[in-house]
Amino acid sequence: MNKNDAAQVFLRVILGLTFFIHGLSKFQGGIGNTAGFFNSLGIPGFMAYIVAGIELIGGLAVILGLGTKIVSVLFAIILLGAIVTAKLPAGFLGNGQTAGYELDLALLAISVYLACASRTVFSVDHMFFNKKGV
């Protein structure tokens, strides 16, 4: 394993852990509250369940390196939605009451990178699809 592979594994684990914790938080804090927040933004409340499920299950999958490319694309879609609907009006760093979109933008960059990157040796995907350059 070279240093680029190690860095990619690090990014994958951090991204997966971040999304897993965010998904878990949505369920522990009462998914109904998240659905209500979605409704207040003009997003159908049932989408809260979908987003939280993708974050929770997708986070675990990315940590393991299972379906990383697909899940990273889903994460990117979620992040774009969060930036446009909830974070953009507050600005890059936020306005004191609402968080800005700086973290979302960094997570988006990681997601896009992982969606485009090759599989690493330390991933479940590599065990099943052991092809060079894929």
UniProtKB/TrEMBL annotation:
What does the UniProt entry say about where the protein is found?
Cell membrane
Record keywords: Transmembrane helix included?
yes
State any GO CC term: plasma membrane
Entry keyword annotation includes Cytoplasm: no
Name the residues that span the membrane: 9-27, 47-66, 73-93, 105-122
Q: Which InterPro entries match?
A: DoxX (IPR032808), DoxX-like_oxidoreductase (IPR051907)
Q: What is its main location?
A: membrane
**UniProt keyword list:** Cell membrane, Membrane, Transmembrane, Transmembrane helix
Query: What's the family?
Result: Belongs to the DoxX family.
| Name the UniProt record assigns to this protein | Oxidoreductase
